[in-house]
Amino acid sequence: MTTSLGALVETAKSGAPIATAVAHPCDVASLAGAVDAARDGLIAPILVGPPARIARVAEEAGLDISPYPLVETPHSHASAEQAVAVVREGRAQALMKGSLHTDELMHEALRKEAGLRTERKLSHVFALDLVSRDRLFFVTDAAINIYPDLLTKADIVRNAIECVQALGIARPKVALLSAVETVTPKIPSTIDAAALCKMADRRQIVGGDLDGPLAFDNAVSVEAAEMKGINSSVAGRADILVAPDMEAGNMIAKQLTFLAGADAAGVVMGARVPIILTSRADDRRARLASAAVAVLVARANAAAIAAAVD
Questions:
Q1: How far apart are CA 262 and CA 138, in angstroms?
Q2: pLDDT, tens digit, for every residue of 90-142?
Q3: 297: CATH
Q4: Do 122 and 260 share a domain, yes or no?
Q5: Residues forming beta bridges with residue 20, ordered by sequence position
Q6: Same domain, yes or no, for 257 and 276?
Q7: Fewer CB near the last or first residue (10 Å), C or N of the chain?
Q8: Which phi and psi angles does 69 have, rounded to 5°?
Q9: Which of 97, 91, 148, 96 is nearest to 123 (CA)?
Q10: What is the sign, positive or negative, of the torsion defined by CA atoms of 206, 117, 38, 62?
Q11: Cα 5-268-82 angle, rounded to 5 deg
């Protein structure tokens, strides 16, 4: 089991690098992030964007990009389109956001005919490393689905379970968060949480242990769960925290990052390949960790495909 983002990066380094389409790396942060991940043996980047702009950024940052293939495009929209095409053609097993808007990249990834859709809804998973804890927490969905309905939440849970399994937790514990731990029609998220647990009982959701509704304290603190008389294998021991909506998930992740000092990495799941969404505020460590998460997910995807063929 991976206990920290640093350990996760080291685990990802142990295998062959994953070919990754990097969409529009036209600022120092995004280009340096891709080159750093390549130097650490995590990815084999395929740079997609305007050659002159990328070359200027490389010169400004003192980066050698000569080892990496480049797909020429005139602007960011074309970069998103071509990066997705590189993945669809099988030339890359992961997609990385550069210095374009997230919406621009996700629009191309979600196109019905030429995108990277599967039968799943896409969702984002944050991996959070807190010095006060001896293991990682995973928060979802904090970036994609604003107010997910029940079926979307089911895919959010499925995506998170598959992500966490790829990182070494064979059967993650999934806490379905709300403001309270009792089911009440006055709080719709408690109804959804109860329904998701029953879906797991009926094997509509597999691979993890679900419990909810759980308030945040009951999900992460054994003592708090015991005080409330909550008896479950998940309460107080959750690996995955499923927020009721994107607003809550985003607040949880950012509060843990900025108030509790957590290091964070993230990946979008549910597409044909993992998608690395980095922020301009991310430092080198966060960018490497996000690449490592995607690499491990991509390897797990390849292993699953190989097993299905056999």
A1: 12
A2: 999 999 999 999 999 999 999 988 889 999 999 999 999 998 888 899 999 99
A3: 3.40.50.10950
A4: yes
A5: 45, 94
A6: no
A7: C
A8: -65, 150
A9: 148
A10: negative
A11: 120
Please tell me whether residue 49 adopts helix, strand or coil conformation: strand
Q: Report the predicted TM-score, pTM, of the whole model to 2 decimal places.
A: 0.94
For 72, the domain range is 1-117+271-310
**Using an 8 Å Cβ cutoff, are 38 and 47 in contact?**
no
- Helices 284-309 and 150-166, packing angle to 10 deg: 90
Report the CATH number that the domain containing residue 152 is assigned in CATH.
Answer: 3.40.718.10
Question: Count of H helices and E strands in the chain?
Answer: 11, 11
Q: How many domains does the chain have?
A: 2
The confidence score (pLDDT) of residue 300 equals 93
**DSSP secondary-structure letter at 121?**
P
Would you mind telling me the total number of residues written for the chain in this entry? 310
- Together in a domain, 112 and 122: no
Give kind and range of the element (H or E) at residue 106.
helix 102-109
Report in angstroms the alpha-carbon separations of 291 from 105, 180, 230, 287.
Answer: 17, 35, 37, 6
Our measurement of the distance from residue 27's CA atom to the centroid of its chain's CA atoms, rounded to an integer in Å, reads: 22
Hey, what amino acid is at 64?
D
**Mean pLDDT, 10 residues at a time, over the chain (310 residues)?**
84 94 95 95 97 96 96 96 96 95 93 89 95 90 95 98 95 97 96 98 97 95 92 94 97 92 93 89 85 95 81
- Amino acid 67 reads P
Q: What is the DSSP letter of 16?
A: P
Burial class (CB in 10 A: 0-12, 13-18, 19+), 259: exposed
- Do 162 and 297 have their domain in common? no
